[in-house]
Amino acid sequence: MSDTPQPPKHSASPLHEYAKIGEGDTGAMHRDYTGKFRAFEPTEEHRTLVKGFAAVGLPQDQIASYIGIDKTTLIRHFRKELDHGMIEANSQVAKVLYQKAISGNIAAAIFWAKVRMGWSEKVVHVNDPDNPMPTQVHRIELVAAQPVKNDNSEN
Description:
The protein is α+β, with helices and mostly antiparallel strands. The protein has one domain (14-142). It has four helices and four strands. The strands form two sheets. It has a two-stranded antiparallel ribbon with strand order 1-2. A two-stranded antiparallel ribbon has the order 3-4. Strand 3 and strand 4 form a beta hairpin. The longest helix has 32 residues, at 71-102. The radius of gyration is 26 Å and the shape is elongated. The relative contact order is 0.09.
């Protein structure tokens, strides 16, 4: 029999074999399910889960807790998955929003105009001397927005 500890038969997932040592630790060493201290070694399963959790917007402390590590260890070992998961999810949502906007979905087009084009919606109160009740007029206008600085552009 090997000296490598095996997960208990009742374990639902190998992801929970690590438990945090305590508050304030560096995140490098953890107790495994046998109680021995071990360095955290991420698996492909960990990487897939972290990327998926980041894609749906889970906070990093919750992702770390699920994996059984602290936030420092999560960031140290999964920086790429945290960044790329969020980028890929935002890209998919933007793609759907864009398709809806160009296919005639008015709400999607207005949202796109406000967020991406710098437009804003104003409510203007008009006082009519013949009408004692003020009238509200909704107006969408382009507000001077600061140009987005491209990291690849030369100044």
